[in-house]
Every structure is written in C-alpha cells, then in structure tokens.
Amino acid sequence: MMRLSRTALLASVLLLGARTAAAQTIPSPYRHVETSQMVGVFAGYQWIDDNISLTDSTEAAMGVQSAPVVGLRYQIRASGPVSIEGAVTVSPSKRQLFEPEFNADSTEVGAADLGVSVPATIVSVDAGLRFFLTGARTWKGLAPFVGAGASLLGDIRGTFDEEEDADLEPIERFRFGPAFAVNAALGTDWFVRENASLRVELSGRLWNMETPAGFLFIRTTDQDEWNPVVGLTVGGAIHF
Length: 240
Hints:
Blueprint: H1 2-24, E1 30-32, E2 37-48, E3 52-53, E4 59-60, E5 67-79, E6 82-102, E7 109-132, E8 137-139, E9 142-155, H2 161-165, E10 179-193, E11 196-210, E12 224-239
C-alpha cells in the first residue's frame, strides 16, 4: 500500500510539472524571414509643390503637378536589418503654360497664366537603403522600416505644339529634368504568406526644378530650387 501511494505521488508530481511547463510556453510573435530578395509592384499618389520662384516675392505654378504614380521595385538583403532597394516609377502628370509679363518700366518680370495645360510624364529611377526595425524577422507578420536614397528623374514628354502656338521662346519654356532628388521613407511590409507581402509606404523627397531663363530678366533668386514632394503608395511583392 505504501509503495502504491509513493508511485501515485510521483506520477502526480510529474504530471503537475508537465502542465506547469506547458502553461509557461508562450508562442513567439517573431518569425524569421528566410528569403533575401523581393520583387514588387506598387501604385499611389504624390503631392507636388509646383511653384517656381521668379523673384524673392513672386512665384508661378509652372512645375509638374500632383499626380498618380505606379512603379516596380527590387530589393535584396545586404546584411541583417539592412536591404538595398531599386525602383522605377512613372507618374502621368501635367503642367500649366505661362508667359513672361513685364511691369510698366520693364524692370521686373512676372508670369501670366495662359490657361493651357500640357501633359507631362515623370519617370524616376531610384536607389536607396531600407533599415528594417525587426531585423530579418517579422513581428506578427509586420516588418516596419525606415529608408533613405536618391533619384534621377525627369519629364520624358519633350516639346509640345501648344508652346509653339503660344509663341513661347525656348528660354521661356519650363523643362523638368534630368533632375536629382533625395528621398526618405517609412512604412511596413505585411507578410500574408511566407513568400508574399503587402507594403504601405509614406515617402518624402526633395527634387530640383529650374526656373526658365526667360522669367529671370532681373535675377534676385537662384535659378534652381528644391521643391518638396510627398507620396503614399500601396503594393504587393513576392519574396524568394
């Protein structure tokens, strides 16, 4: 009888210990990302400051305007939390035509809106780094990141008949690009499967726009200036 009681007591202790260990096991919210490369597509919108300075107190909205954007990106992990990313984007935009307007004594030039808009297609080639806050892992499927980079971009549409019809001289015509831009971004990947994710990204950039020489009769500002652009995109990607 004593031997049976000791056996039952030992079994009870072992069972209680197993239950306690099981109760202390908490599934980790982190998951290692096995893949190192990614190809994705995205679409969104970018809000552009289209004002160009003519004098210290005068500007005209002759730059390319806010527009939708679509693109293709490729990303490869460099080491740990750092990845290298390249992207090509296209934005079908437009811009407004202006002509120089001189004051009475021709000592200062302004800009007269001609009421005519022409299409503009902005193509951008981007390269940069992405730093993932969770490293080469996800937290509940999320991989948030911050990033920085640079771009080469411009309007590929060229010249337009409307500018000829408005009798605008070549030095009075706005041209965008090839131009340089610096970029910053923050966002997150959401892994819906081990090799598939969705991405939401908020970006900011500064790009360089040049005031047409025909509007700088008396130059009181720099001919080049940096204009802010804010973009929001949503996309999907395959990881391998």
